[in-house]
Amino acid sequence: MKEKAPDKKIDIRGLVCPYTFVKAKLAIEDMEVGQVLEIVLDYPEAVSNIPKSMQDHGQAVLKVEQSGGKDWIITVRKEKD
Amino acid sequence: MEFTDEQVQRYSRHIILPEVGGKGQKKLLAAKVFLVGAGGLGCPVGYYLAAAGVGTLGIVDDDIVELSNLQRQIAHNTKRVGMPKVESAKKTFEALNPDVKVNAMKGRLTKDNILDIIKDYDIVVDGSDNFPTRYLVNDACVMLKKPLVSGAILRFEGQVTTLLPHDGHCYRCLFEAPPPPGLVPSCQEAGVLGVLPGVIGALEATEVLKLILGRGDVLKNTLLIYDALKASFRRVKVPRNPDCPICGAHPAITKLEDYDAGYCQLGG
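ok -> structure tokens follow
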């Protein structure tokens, strides 16, 4: 089965905590339940913090993967408004 | 509206909270809150509401800053002695947060001007130091069905309550009429611990934020009493009075009144 393309992408490379999560949260707030957000980031701590915080807020973390170099991609599906 | 980078930083600790978020922060920025008094209570209430990003603050006070105020009125400072309190408060709040617009009014609320002054605000906060103003503000808020967060302080004790007219109790359900002049001492006569208005003002500001956000429980039908010496909080149930002279089924009071006669006009 082919993976669903993200409904929205944000590039927060260069940002550090807590602004990484703040930006990701603002992005997902503006989306509809069921939509998927792709986050590109390079701050190491946020790679574990964003998925954890997203789950705490009731969202589904679909994927956390390194995309080459220092960059990571996190995909999150909005489950809750 | 979209947040600027500065706003994302400034409000990040709000945006992270599930109960606030970007949506809640936008509600705060769009909110209009009116403060009665720029003294002991008005200073911390306005300070925290400005910090929180409440977009419009109205503030009324007739007094000027005096040295004796500075033990507790934290928006003012030594250099501003002699300046109108509302002007000093406006400078402080707008310097803290440029997102906040402060409408400063030096003067007194009266039966003739209050309805017009508060009508465009979402919530009123009473930090006044006298009973005539307290009853006038209550009656006006009942008439306009405007939420009123009310606080009071004396010596080591303070109280807070949130009045939601025609839904919860009003000030007259609690105390039907003002006490006779001279019966209740003012801060000037009895003293007040300087930090007390900070505690009570912070509680009032918390009530305001919850009302704007539509989150949590407010002090509806409840009086919260803080005793600083005992370090204790007490909650007292205050039912609505069906025979309340202003919010009851058959109100005796149908127009506003000034109760000024005989009351000390000095600031607390």
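The radius of gyration of chain A is 12 Å.
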